Structure prediction request, 158 residues.
Amino acid sequence: MAKSIKGITRIEYEGVTTRGWMVRLTRAGERQQEFFNDRAYGGKAKALAAAKKRYEEWVAVAPPIQTSKNLKSSRNTSGKVGVHLVRNVDPRWKNAESFGYCAMWTDSEGKRRKVSFAWNTYGKKKAWTLACLARDLESTDREALVAQAEKTQKKKKK
Prediction:
């Protein structure tokens, strides 16, 4: 498979003589697109060069990318983005359920990470504090998070 080029797609269908590069850029809900035909630009390489140039021109004047990271939506019921209540049920025992708070985020490599804090281990309030701290710091290191929470708690008491 060929190396992918951000914002540029190769258009090449069997049985269709039109071949070229499609450039697309969407920012702030506005979409721009333009097709660069191989024949019109004198070949595949020249059409690609023109497509890359156009993409760079558009990016230079486009508004910054909008991200929904840390923006509360209607789906958020806990009050903290990326933290939710977890209910665990053990089917082997009657009425065997436990609760906790889970912090979730996507790391810089695009991999989903999470860490949970049980109420029966930390208590409801401390589990919430630890989950919020884990989400803010994007850390799964429980010992470091507990130490950080205790340090913060001591500062508040002073």
Summary: The chain has two domains: 8-61, 83-157.
